[in-house]
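To whoever is on call:

I kicked off a structure prediction for a single chain this morning and the downstream step that reads the tokens threw a length-mismatch warning. I double-checked the sequence; it's 446 residues and nothing unusual in it as far as I can see. Pasting both halves so you can look.
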Amino acid sequence: MAITLSTAYSANVAGGNLPAASTFTITGITVPADATAALLFMHGGYGTTTGDTLDISNFDADTDDHFTFLDDGWDKASDREIVGAYYLLYGQTGFPTRGATNQTFTGSLTYAPGYSMTFVIVFLSGTVTDGTFVIGSNGTTSTQANPWTSASLGSLGAADLAMIAGTEYAAAVTVTGNSQTELASGLFDQDGWAIGYKVASATMVMTVASGGYQGGVAFAVKAAAGGAVVLTLLTADLEITSNQDSTTASVSPAAGSVLYVAVGATEAGSGTSGTAALSGVMATWTQIASVAFASRRYLWWFRGTGTITNGTITISVTIDGGTRETKYWSVIQATGVDGTTPNDAATTSITTDTGITLSDVGTLGADDKVLAAFCHEDNEAVTLTDQTQLSHTANATGVRTLTVGYGTDDTPSATWATLAGSAAGGFIVNAAAGGAVDSNFIFSRW
């Protein structure tokens, strides 16, 4: 997928020293629906006093932002210009809502007095992790006749991106030629800056409009090969309660992961219908399956996405006209999942036999998985067919067993010894596609 350039937003400071500790705001941002990482670039222009330096290491002093430092570089001759790069992964605190429009990002920076600052945000899609970024050479002197070249990014694949962000004191700077694409550039208060990229090359070149010193940062963004969905049990348990919420053990999902939670519940009175809701840990919880069985028992599936806050999940169940008796749950982490369509629609089945087969969930891709939950109205062993068991929670009270497993069978099944009421619910978890990293570009000068 090619990098695409979105609308740019900008504002200028018309000269003069900036305060030593300042905030900046980027407004009007449209966040791609499949964004998995945000890159933040910062360019700083100094005052006229030689030796002024930007304290880029203190960029994260404001706890409202949570970008991770990647690299920085500057023109070493005058020490008047600096460029820094940071990243924030989807699922980490501070990542904006995917698909949202007109978003605002606010951060802060501590630095010595200077003339101008520029901030640039690039959104990436694809499988992006901390190991995605490969740092190259940075911070070198150069002249127009001897442009800065980065050639130490290692071996890049056909879908990988090489990126460069540089600055030039008292001259314009560009990223052009050599099959490169310039994302943006500017010249303000004498301070030139530019950001660009190219595909499948470890060498990036910057040029200047006139002789002078330049420097910056260069790094590769490694595209992940298509890989299988990985499903991991985080916690499973039950609670015998009477009209109160239940809380899971504390969990710490991986950045960018999706959570799936199976919930089984029963009521001890004359209830005719039940509903459930989840809160905590994930920014958004969506119910993706619901089935009632054996007169007063229920099975639900939920999906959790968005910003992750480590902690406990609260499970709330409401029974119409009845009294909640027990709740069972299993919390599953999914990684390597498609960012746009994490899962297909769920299917459900009910029976009163010694086994159950889930209705056909559809056609799996090569790296997809089927995630299924089985509730059985008896406290006994459950055998899964062609699946790997993730959890089995059993008790003599309530739904009595909740068993969760995964595999590649599009009609997964389970069996047990005693003829009794049971239910099944499951769906395909879609793997993220491999291929080139994709990005969208927004910038603001502060």
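Update from on-call: the warning came from a stale cache, not from the record. Cleared it. Sanity check on the structure: The first strand starts at residue 21 and ends at 29.
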